[in-house]
Design brief:
30% of the residues lie in helices and 18% in strands. With 200 residues, it is an alpha/beta fold.
């Protein structure tokens, strides 16, 4: 199983294949790897001990940050994610990012953002579009039409516990007018807006 893998200057953690969304644009519909990774479909979710053991395979000095991002929604694996974050902070002192769809509070039916405090440096959330109806059409969240507002609420709550919160859209997938609306949404909730390049 490919649990830890390299992407550019980061070491990424693939903790779960579970996800409450079925995004129309998701890479895992067309490929089984990202960058230099091996196959990211897991036979089962790794235990905390298995994840920790994987660090022996890497020289952590070569990485600028550690990122929770794999073939699933990282917050689905919160009971493993949090102690792994503690281990990385204590052992390697690296910056830690979570790439998420922002459904963590819906998944756990509680506010999980206070648990990021002191552990997570950046939370990067896929905004995709400024329109709630279009958002649900794109991500097909199992939580239904309230998912867009819940994602924005999650982002706003993260700002109280994490130093950098980013909402992102993908270049060329929405109009400049829609990007302007996304920027306004980000300003209203106090997060950074990022337009990221398409990686097909």
């Amino acid at each position: 199983m490919e649990i830890l893998y390299k992407v550019h200057n980061g070491l990424y953690a693939n903790l779960t294949n579970k996800c409450p969304c079925a995004c129309t644009f998701c890479l895992r519909q067309t490929t089984d790897h990202v960058g230099e990774s091996g196959r990211l479909w897991l036979e089962r979710e790794p235990s905390l001990e298995e994840v920790i053991a994987e660090f022996d395979k890497f020289d952590m000095d070569q990485f600028e940050e550690f990122v929770f991002c794999g073939f699933g929604e990282p917050t689905e694996a919160l009971p493993v994610l949090l102690p792994v974050a503690d281990y990385v902070k204590k052992t390697f002192g690296k910056k830690i990012r979570i790439n998420t769809n922002g459904m963590g509070n819906l998944i756990w039916q509680r506010d999980i953002t206070p648990e990021f405090e002191g552990r997570i440096d950046t939370v990067s959330i896929s905004l995709n579009t400024p329109d709630a109806k279009r958002y649900q059409e794109l991500v097909k969240s199992k939580f239904g039409d309230g998912s867009f507002d819940a994602m924005l609420d999650f982002a706003k709550r993260c700002t109280e516990h994490v130093s950098q919160v980013i909402l992102s859209t993908v270049d060329t997938t929405i109009t400049h007018e829609e990007e302007a609306r996304c920027r306004q949404i980000c300003e209203e909730i106090g997060v950074t807006y990022r337009i990221r390049p398409w990686e097909g």
